[in-house]
Structure formats: C-alpha cells, structure tokens
From TrEMBL, chain A:
The chain crosses the membrane at residues 54-73, 93-120. The keyword Transcription regulation does not apply. It comes from Myxococcus xanthus. Keywords: Membrane, Transmembrane, Transmembrane helix. PANTHER family: LIPOPROTEIN-RELATED, QUINOL:CYTOCHROME C OXIDOREDUCTASE MEMBRANE PROTEIN. This is DUF3341 domain-containing protein. InterPro entries: ActD. Pfam families: ActD.
From TrEMBL, chain B:
InterPro entries: NrfD-like. This is Polysulfide reductase NrfD. The gene is nrfD. It is found in: Cell membrane. The chain crosses the membrane at residues 46-75, 81-110, 122-142, 167-187, 229-248, 268-288, 309-330, 350-369, 376-401, 421-441. Its main location: membrane. Keywords: Cell membrane, Membrane, Transmembrane, Transmembrane helix.
Length: 175, 474
C-alpha cells in the first residue's frame, strides 16, 4: 500500500514553483500530472533524459540486418535463380526493403518502448478513482507527493496548502 | 537602457496577418469546445453524408464480390494495358496519404506551430487513404487469397519471393507505411483520449475512452517519454514518406517501357503525392471546419499556409511535367518521343490538357494573398487538383502501355462499370471512415492546442513586459 498527497494548482508556473519549493524542503518523491507537457518540470523533478533513442537505434539496426540477411539467404543461397545473368547477391536491389524494415522495427520499438516506459496499459490507478483528479487532463496542474505514514501525510498536506494548492487530497492504493 | 534585452517572439508582429488562434479561452472551455463534435449528437448533415458514403461502400462490396466470383476479366484491362484502374487508384490513394504525414511529421520536425490544429485530421485522412490504397493491389492479384505468397515464409514449395522486383519492395513499403502511420496516430491520440475520458459524463463513454487511453495520467514521466517517442516517430516517418512514393515510382521507372523508364520519376511522384494529398486535406478540412465550428482553431492562417504549400508542391509537379517532356524530346529516341507526343497531340491529349489546367494553372491562383484565405475558392481548387491528379495517374499508366514499341500490339483502354464502381466505392469507404472518425475521436489535438495557447500567452506577456520596460526607459 502506498500513500500520496495530491495538490492542484491553477497554472503551470505556480505548479513548477511549488515543486521547486517542495524539493527544497525535502520532499523528493514528487510527480507532476498536467494536461500538456510543461517546460522545466523535468529539471525540477530531477528526471533524466529518455533512453528511447538508443532503443530505436538498436531496433532499427536489427531490423535492417534481419531484412538484408533474409534477402541474401533467399536470393543467393537457398534459391539461386539466375535472372538474365545478374548477380545473385544483388545488394543495391536489397536496399529498399532493408530501409523499410529498419523503419518498421524502430517504429514498433519506439511505440512499445513508450508504452512500457510509461507503465501502460494500466486502466485502473488510485488517482483515476478521484473525481477531482479528472482535471489533470483538462485544466489542473497536479503535484503528487509520495509519503510514508500519517505524519508524512500531514506534513505534505501542510506544505501543499502553504504553497497555494487549490485542492489537497490524500490517496492510498497500490502503486 | 543599459542591459541588452533578450530576443523574444513577439506575436503583435505587424507581419503576422492571421493569428493561429482566433480567440483565447480558459483550458477547460477550450477542451470542451474541441470535444463538442464527439460529445453531442450529430446533425442531419452528418447522417445524410454517412448514408451516401455507406451506399457507395455497399457498391464497393458488390464490385469486389463480382471481381472475386468472375475474375479480373470483368475489369476493362486488356493486353497490353494490363495495369489500368487497379494501379491508378492505388497510386492515387497512396499519394493522398502523403500529405497527412507531411503535416504531422515533417512540419513537427521543422517546428511549425500551425500544424497543431490540423494534424489529427490529416493523419486520419492518411490512414483511410492507405486502407483504400492497399485494397487495389490485393484485388489486382487476381487470386487475392494467395497474397501471402508475397511474404517470405518457408513453404513446402521451396520458393521465395523475388526480392529484386519492385513489386515486392512495394509490399514492404506499404505495410511499413500503414503500420507506422497507425502507431504515430495512436500515440498522438493517447493524451486526448484521456481528456475525453475525463470530460465525458456517461459511464460507458468513460469506460470506452478509459480503455483506449490505456490509463494515461499525464505525469511528467509520461510526457517525457511521449515527447521523445513522438519526435522519434516523426523523424522516422519523414524519410519513410519520401521512400514510399519513391518505391511506388520504381514500379514504373525500373521497367523498360518508353514513358516510364526515367530518372525523374521518384522526385516527380513524391511531389505529386504531396500535392494531391494537400488538395485532399483542403477538401476535407474546409467543410469540417465549417460544420464543426472550428474557426477559432483552424483559422485563416492555416488555410493560407496550406494554400502556399499547394502552390509550392504544384510548382514541383509542373517542373516534373516539363522535365518529363524534355527528357522524351532530348533522348532522340523515337519510342520515347512517341510516348510524349501522344500525350500532347494524340488520343490522350484531352486528358493531358485537363491535367495541365488542373495541376499547373489552377494552383497559380494562390499567388494572390486574398484568394489563399477564401475557403470557397480553395475548396473548388482543391477538388480540381484531386481530379487532375487522378487523371495524371491515368495518363502515366495507360498511355505508355497502350502504345509501346510494336504498333501491331497497340490497343486502347476503356473502364467497365466494375472499374468505376471500385473507384467510387473506395471514395465512399474513405468518406465513411473520415465521418466516423469525426464523430468518435477528438478531431483536433486538444493537448497540443492548449500548449500552443499557453505558449502564445507567455510570449505575449513577455512582449508586453519588454515594451513596458522600454517605454519606461524612454
């Protein structure tokens, strides 16, 4: 069972300022929920860059290599069909399929990578049960502070109120 | 003033004639306005259009059934014109898809803000156009239930597809393009599906959109991965879109036929694809903007930008025509010259000069800034370009085939009612898909428009601040 205290702010600027203040006062396990991506929030929350580009590169190279090997094996090794004396291992003719397969593999990896890295699909979540939290995808800028025990809840609630949160809620549930 | 002022984008720029957003609204109201098409009951107009498109889709099903039961002999194809409608429609539809990817991916990489309001509709258009396109090669196979022969799988026949042939390249290009377009579209939809889930009142809507949004909560971690992934997919889709129509053009350019065997084909096809797709975007966007009251987010700035793109890509296409005919003449080869002459003065002259009027002359209207923002003029021009681009594919495919090297084997082509039903049927299927999309999914990207509004407000506030400081210093 995990516990969070949620606070809603009316503008992204106020939310970022509040996140900065919370981190300065020792609340390090913070998360922001916003209707659109907010500048600076990654830096304030101390999030590092996404590693998806590396995944995309590896998948792309893998896709290209796989496609080239399949073409070479089928045309030059397993079924060597002589068409007008042209070379069996005809590299230039294999380029289009190699390129397309690289794109296909990389795109599939990126999509699955985003889904997995975000912890989706996850249709139930303790936050999604809250009626007030619906504004997180509409016009509310929420901060979620992960806390331990009831004294943690009280401290976080106090801090969020002091920073000007319009709504403050405590939530309990499975992470 | 002693300290240097930072450079800021000033939206009160006298050079900006049309704003990207006509009005500013609180985020909640903006989101609700953009979701109104999916949250309210559709009007009579929607039902009437669905009726027409559904009827055409039934016609498509009938034509497909007749083709399957009897065989491709019910089409007008003959020898030597063995390709005809099956390939014309394929090239036309797949080209239309390209503008959706241009708007959603290429303009994202170039940081063009105006794409935000129109990219969802353009991407939906791409998807439905690709579905229509993919149908034709399958039907054209003659025995479509054996399409899996095109996939390299270890079979008891001990045969493999011939990967030196552009036709197998096509298969991979189209499946990749369709898959990447679906992934890109769905990834872009995720945040808006969550907004729809949270805005809806009825439990069943919340449940359906809740499932489709996969539990999106808009956390900073979500957005970080989402933005990276979205940008990467755009980066991949950009070379992909160029490669797809290049490969389609290889179907022609790699052959030996006079009129097809030309190095101008790949760039000429890509330009034509984007040109025809932009025309289709305008044909769909202008009525949708009016019917869904999207004037505040799809403004004259968007029409202006699309009209400029239509003009530029039209000029590329015109250059392609000039080069094609120049190559034919400069080759000195009687067969090449003949292939071009029959377009200008032979049996295909009426079609060729119609193409010239629709694709070269009509876009020249948009040198005028006033005409670029006239929805009616733009819409009519876009429809003419659609017709022109279809006819262009017709003459590219039919005329070199019908009169090639040996006059004894020349034969002309006329479509049958089944051919015409397949073409109009796919138009119906395309329209039906687009209408259902407008009804069930947010047609304008909500989170992107909110972000854009916030950016514009921030830069205006900054500009205001700067000018106030300047005024104080003087």
């Amino acid at each position: 069972m995990s516990r969070w205290v949620l606070g809603e702010f009316r503008t992204p600027e106020r939310m970022v300022a509040a996140a900065r203040a919370l981190r300065a006062s020792g609340f390090l396990r913070l998360e922001a929920h916003t209707p659109y991506p907010v500048e600076d929030v990654d830096a304030v929350l101390g999030l590092s860059g996404s590693r998806l580009p590396l995944l995309a590169l590896l998948a792309g190279v893998g896709g290209a290599a796989g496609a080239y090997v399949v073409q070479w094996f089928t045309q030059a090794v397993d079924w060597p069909l002589n068409v007008g004396g042209r070379p069996l291992h005809s590299g230039p003719a294999f380029i289009p399929i190699t390129f397309e397969s690289a794109v296909l593999a990389a795109a599939g990896a990126i999509f699955l990578g985003v889904i997995v890295a975000c912890g989706l699909p996850r249709v139930t979540h303790p936050f999604l049960d809250l009626e007030a939290f619906r504004s997180a995808s509409i016009d509310g800028f929420w901060l979620a502070v992960a806390v331990d025990g009831s004294e943690g809840v009280d401290a976080a609630e106090g801090a969020l109120r002091q920073l000007g949160a319009a709504v403050v809620l405590a939530v309990e549930g499975r992470r | 003033m002693s300290e240097p002022l930072p450079l800021a984008p000033v939206t009160a720029d006298p050079l900006v004639v049309h704003p990207l957003l006509e009005e500013r609204r609180p985020d909640a109201q903006l989101g609700e306005a953009l979701l109104r098409p999916v949250l309210t009951a559709p009007g009579m107009g929607w039902w009437a259009l669905v009726g027409v498109c559904a009827a055409l889709t039934v016609l498509l099903a009938v034509a497909i059934t007749i083709t399957f039961v009897t065989g491709v002999g019910v089409w007008g194809n003959n020898i030597p014109v063995a390709w005809a409608f099956g390939i014309i429609n394929f090239v036309w539809w797949i080209g239309i898809g390209h503008a959706g990817t241009l708007i959603s991916a290429i303009l994202l990489l170039f940081g063009m803000k105006w794409r935000s309001s129109v990219n969802r509709m353009a991407e939906a258009m791409t998807l439905f156009a690709l579905v229509c396109a993919a149908l034709f090669p399958l039907l054209h196979l003659g025995r479509p239930w054996k399409f899996y022969y095109l996939v390299p799988y270890p079979s008891s026949l001990r045969m493999w597809p011939q990967f030196r042939s552009p036709l197998t390249w096509d298969v991979v290009a189209i499946t990749t393009y369709l898959t990447v377009s679906v992934l890109f579209w769905y990834l872009g939809l995720l945040p808006d599906l969550a907004t729809a889930r949270d805005t809806a009142k009825q439990p069943w809507r919340r449940r359906v959109w809740g499932l489709l949004s996969l539990g999106w909560r808009g956390s900073a971690r979500h957005w970080r991965h989402w933005r990276t992934g979205y940008l990467l997919l755009a980066g991949l889709a950009t070379p992909l879109v160029v490669s797809v129509h290049t490969i389609v053009s290889f179907d022609f350019a790699v052959s030996q036929l006079p009129g097809w065997h030309s190095t101008i084909f790949p760039p000429y096809f890509v330009a034509g694809a984007i040109f025809s797709g932009l025309a289709m975007v305008l044909s769909l966007l202008i009525p949708a903007r009016r019917a869904l009251h999207l004037h505040a987010v799809v403004t004259q700035a968007h029409l202006d930008a699309l009209a400029r793109l239509l003009l530029v890509s039209g000029l590329f296409v015109a250059y392609g025509y000039v080069q094609e005919h120049f190559f034919g003449w400069y080759s000195g080869n009687p067969y090449e010259m003949h292939a071009m002459n029959i377009l200008r003065t032979g049996p295909y002259a009426p079609a060729f000069w119609t193409v010239f009027a629709c694709n070269v002359l009509v876009p020249q209207l948009f040198w005028s800034a006033r005409l670029r923002t006239q929805p009616v003029v733009l819409w009519c021009a876009a429809l003419l370009v659609n017709v022109g681009m279809w006819l262009e594919r017709f003459i590219i495919i039919v005329s070199p085939l019908s009169e090639d090297f040996l006059p004894a084997s020349w034969r002309h082509y006329a479509p049958t009612w089944v051919d015409l039903s397949l073409l109009s049927g796919t138009v119906g299927l395309f329209g039906l898909g687009f209408l259902l999309f407008l009804r069930f999914l947010p047609p304008v990207p909500i989170s992107e428009v909110k972000e854009l509004q916030h950016e514009l407000e921030a830069s205006e506030a900054f500009a205001h601040d700067v000018s106030a400081r300047e005024g104080g210093a003087r």
